[in-house]
Each structure stands twice: as C-alpha cells, then as structure tokens.
Design brief:
- This protein is an alpha/beta fold and 260 residues long.
- It has a single domain, classed as TIM Barrel, CATH 3.20.20.60.
- It has 13 helices and 8 strands.
- Strands 1-2-3-4-5-6-7-8 form an 8-stranded parallel barrel, surrounded by 7 helices.
- Helix 2 links the parallel strand 1 and strand 2.
- Helix 2 packs parallel to helix 3.
- It starts with a helix and ends in a 7-residue tail after the last helix.
C-alpha cells in the first residue's frame, strides 16, 4: 500500500505544512499540489466544494507526492466513508466535543472488526494500492477538531480514545466558544491559553496537535511550540493576497498623465 507520508513525517518528529483548498476546481488543486505542500486539505465544510468536485481535485493532488486530506462537513458516517473511499489519506472532523463522538469518528473510519466502516474503496485502491483493505486502518489519519467549550471540558477523555491520531484546533470557533473575537493568529488571552492547554494535553497523550493559521510566521511559531500539523492560509486567500500585492504595486507605480 502507498505510504502515508504524513505518518512518516510525524514518526520522525517533524511537522507537516498543510495547504487548504476551498475552491472547487481541479486545476487550482493541481497547481497548489505542485508547490510542495506536505498535505492539502479539501474543505467540504466551509468551502464551496461538493463530492463531485472533490473527486477530480483528489485526482489532481495525486499527480504529486502531496498527501490528500478531506475536512468533512460533520460527524456523519456516509460522508466520512465516501471521502476515504475516494482516496483521502486523512480526514478532519469538525466539532468533536465528547469522548463518544471521538469514538464514533474512529469507528466510522475503520473496517470490522475494529470499526464499522463499510467496504467499498472504489478509488482508494487506485490511489493506495490493491492491498488497501489490509492496511487502510493503520494508514488513514483521523483528526478530531477541538473548537468548543464542551470539547475543552472533555479534552482528556477525547484524547484517550484509542485510534484517534490527531486533534486539530479551529482557532476562530474556539475563540467564539470562549467569548472572544474570531481569529487565526492573534488570539485573545483566554483563547491563546486554551490553545496552549490543548497542545500540552495532546502531547501528554501522545496525540499529534494541529492548528489553522493565517500567516506563515504564526505557523512557524506554533511549530516551535510543538504543533506537528500547521495549515497556512488557503487557495482563495492566496489568490486574493497575490492579486492585492500586484494591484498595490501597479497603483503605486502609475504616474499622473502629463498636463496639456
């Protein structure tokens, strides 16, 4: 079966740099994949992408060594199973707030007898290999998003679930849950303390901690703290930022027409 390079990076003690895909287009996904991201996450929760758009995006990512990840819309078995059947090597599930929800996430993404995933890896065998079924449980990576006050209360119970590989912090939702303004990088003290607490408890449980970032400087600082999965911006934001930079340069460089 094809190696999951994300697991290899973590095993060596390294951190993976993750890109975020919100645009429903295979060419933009392919372009992003060729820039050297360790992983790319297709966002089915808040992006404008549906299942039919996701398939060619996964195919486009497969032209590179970048690991394909999917953030599903919710903790719903059919969506998780279809994402894995399509060839995702990691799934990120939002709003996991209890131990029972984390257990369901793990069960939905494992085959019997260890879980309840239904068998039908229609594209996963093309991407992963003919022996996909024998190795999928140990290869696929499972992230639970920690972004609610309830999840903080149940943090140790969630982190102790066998088979949960990683937690992923959504700083904006976590900030809102704690009565703070939503942000990626410059968090209010209460939210910043919660992020540090999640990281510390994850490391104590031997679970990888990941987090969403707006800027590379913030991502680098968080890697230095011990995060091993950092998302930096998104395809949509990078397009906007690049266009803004070009237009700012053009406006600044234009000269007024000569007076007649």
């Amino acid at each position: 079966m094809r190696e999951n390079r994300l697991r290899t990076i973590w095993k060596s003690g390294g951190a993976a740099v993750n890109g975020w895909l919100a645009i429903a287009n295979s060419f933009s996904a392919e372009t992003m994949a060729h820039q050297g991201w360790d992983t790319l996450t297709i966002d089915l929760q808040h992006g404008v992408i549906d299942y039919q758009a996701m398939i060619p995006m996964l195919q486009a990512i497969s032209t590179t060594a970048t690991v394909p990840v999917v953030r599903v819309p919710w903790l719903e078995p059919s969506v998780l199973m279809k994402a894995l059947d399509a060839g995702a090597y990691g799934v990120i599930c939002p709003m996991v707030s209890t131990r029972e929800e984390a257990q369901r996430l793990v069960a939905y993404t494992r085959y019997a007898p260890r879980g309840t995933r239904s068998f039908g890896p229609v594209r996963a065998t093309l991407y992963g290999g003919a022996d996909y079924a024998q190795h999928a449980d140990a290869t696929v990576v499972r992230f639970a998003m920690i972004e609610t006050a309830q999840a903080l209360d149940n943090l140790d119970a969630i982190l102790s679930v066998e088979g949960l590989d990683a937690v992923y912090i959504g700083p904006s939702d976590l900030s809102l849950a704690l009565g703070c303004k939503p942000a990626f990088d410059e968090l209010e003290p209460k939210a910043a303390e919660a992020v540090d607490h999640i990281l510390a408890r994850a490391r104590a449980h031997g679970v990888v901690a990941g987090i969403h970032n707006g800027a590379p400087e913030a991502a680098l600082a968080r890697i230095a703290k011990g995060f091993q999965f950092v998302t930096v911006s998104s395809d949509a934001r990078l397009i906007a930022a690049g266009a803004q930079q070009v237009m700012a340069t053009m406006r600044a460089g234009r000269t007024a027409p000569a007076a007649r």
